[in-house]
Design a protein that fits this description.
The complex is a heterodimer. By secondary structure, chain A is mostly helical. Chain A is built from 11 helices and no strands. Chain B has one domain: Rossmann fold, CATH 3.40.50. Chain B has a 6-stranded mixed sheet, with helices on both faces. Chain B is globular. Classes of the chains: A mainly alpha, B alpha/beta. At the A-B interface, helix 1 and helix 5 of A face helix 2 and helix 3 of B.
């Protein structure tokens, strides 16, 4: 019971910090909007998508995944800030289980990421994606899966990172490859075999594919496979993160 | 006889091949103010980190509130309040948010939290700052808020790791006033480290620690008598020497942190 309240308050903390920092909410939408409209328009003539889908429509779920990916990783990495500014100690000396810290942080970061994803969802009419209540609901669930996977990964990384200086490395060598290999910006079915292999290793591939099936009805893999890969990945990340937090100095 | 709130036996902590705490033993009685004095790098903060379950001992045992710090960390955590040497507030949240966060982490009753928040804020004279963001507060106010937070869940034992460092004399005086008031009202035990020897005079007993070992442990009055000095400062210098310490422990610690 104590742990449930701890999860709640850790979640609420992330939400409050998000809400208090309104400029950031809009600033972080700049990049995805640029991708969506500039890239979406510029590459459109060369694109022959499945069943007459426009390029901007095709990448819309990918761009939403990108928003969720980046927001999730930033939220999780904020643990390193918390360590630098001492706040992490306040959490670590509290009488709560270490798994509650991981779950609370992951839920908080994921909720913020899904909220950012929902803001992007509002642009759907502009790129010709038709949303129903059902699609929105399913999209939110898929976004939450993606967010949990990536915050889990972020917490695993943050638990090992002692200084914020390493963050650029994480972006260049972990986040960017995850994003580019996920098929967020291109179809997965006409790639050379080495690239196909890499896209299959990327956990985000399955999230993007699932979101694309839900939103525009085009997917490369069965929904069950997408769901299974993500759940397994989330489970592994959480387990590793809890182990890292339990291994007290 | 009241039971001891802290009981430490042959405690050792190594970082690689550097021994930060080298087989110390002591106990702190209920309601006692126990001072831990020593030059930089003597092992004070390492000891506090072990007692508050942030670090594991390499050897020896430590009990806090009758619970072993490695076997029952959560029961220890529940019984203690800590004012760390470095700030540990979330400055993007308000004063009230920080306190409420703490209350939830300590699984306090929600009505109790709302009752206690005005009480502790009044104690440290921050009632009018309740809705301010922490980043808008001065250094002294932040310190007072940390004290309020450490007392919110009514711990049995309060750890103060250099609680008044970098504060002006007025704030320091006030902080001691709050702490002594709390002790009187709630029979709070206090384990503190400080570099200000006048502050150590309020302690019931002090341990002087150097190179990870306790060199002497007694009441301030006895120490002064035994070393025939008029102040604790004199006693301290007599025992630990006048040489300035390289912060060996701190650098060993940070190197070790980087490796892991």
């Amino acid at each position: 019971m104590a742990d449930l309240w701890a999860i709640y308050i850790l979640w609420l903390r992330d939400l409050k910090r998000y809400w208090y920092d309104k400029p950031r909410i809009f600033a972080s939408l700049g990049q995805p909007i640029l991708f969506l409209f500039v890239l979406g328009t510029a590459l459109s003539p060369n694109f022959t998508g499945p069943s007459g889908i426009k390029f901007s429509e095709f990448i819309f779920p990918g761009i939403i995944s990108m928003t969720v990916l980046f927001t999730s990783i930033f939220s999780a990495i904020s643990i390193v800030w918390d360590r630098e500014f001492g706040f992490l100690k306040e959490v670590l000396v509290a009488p709560i289980s270490r798994w509650a810290i991981v779950v609370g942080k992951a839920c908080g970061g994921s909720t913020v990421a899904v909220l950012q994803g929902c803001l992007m969802l509002c642009l759907a009419p502009l790129v010709g994606v038709h949303l129903t209540f059902e699609i929105v609901f399913q999209s939110i669930l898929v976004m939450f899966l993606i967010a949990l996977a990536i915050t889990g990964l972020g917490i695993v990384i943050a638990a090992r990172m002692k200084e914020m200086e390493g963050f650029q490395m994480v972006v260049n060598f972990v986040i960017m490859p995850i994003f580019f290999l996920s098929g967020a910006l291109f179809p997965l079915d006409r790639l050379p075999s080495w690239l196909t292999l890499l896209t299959r290793i990327d956990p985000l591939t399955y999230g993007v594919d699932m979101l694309r099936s839900v939103m525009i009805g085009v997917g490369s893999f069965p929904v069950l496979l997408n769901l299974a890969v993500q759940l397994v990945f989330i489970f592994i990340m959480f387990a590793v993160a809890v182990m890292e937090f339990n291994a007290a100095d | 006889m009241p039971t001891d709130v802290v009981k430490v036996e042959n405690l050792v902590r190594k970082f690689g091949d550097f021994t930060a705490v080298d087989g110390i033993s002591f106990s702190v009685g209920a309601g006692e103010i126990f001072g831990f004095l020593g030059p930089n790098g003597a092992g004070k903060t390492t000891t506090i980190n072990i007692l508050c379950t942030l670090l594991r001992p390499t050897a020896g045992t430590a009990q806090v509130a009758c619970c072993d710090v490695t076997k029952e960390p959560n029961r220890v955590r529940k019984a203690i309040g800590i004012i760390f040497q470095d700030p540990s507030l979330d400055d993007r949240l308000t004063v009230e948010d920080n306190l409420r966060f703490h209350g939830y982490l300590y699984n306090m009753d929600h009505r109790k939290i709302e009752e206690r928040i005005p009480d502790v804020l009044m104690l440290v004279e921050l009632s009018d700052r309740r809705r301010n963001f922490v980043r808008q507060l001065s250094g002294g106010m932040k310190r007072r808020l940390e004290i309020a937070r450490g007392l919110l869940h009514q711990p049995e034992l309060l750890f103060l790791d250099e609680p008044t460092i970098g504060l002006d004399p007025q704030t320091r005086a006030h902080i001691w006033e709050y702490i002594l008031k709390m002790r009187k009202e709630h029979n709070l035990s206090i384990f503190m480290t400080t570099h200000y020897m006048q502050e150590a005079e309020v302690c019931d007993r002090v341990a002087i620690i150097d190179h990870g070992k306790i060199v002497d442990l007694d009441t301030p009055a006895n120490l002064k008598a035994r070393y025939s000095e008029s102040t604790l400062e004199g006693v301290f210098l007599k025992i630990t020497g006048r040489e300035i310490r390289a912060q060996a422990a701190e650098s060993a610690w940070s190197q070790w942190m980087r490796r892991t």
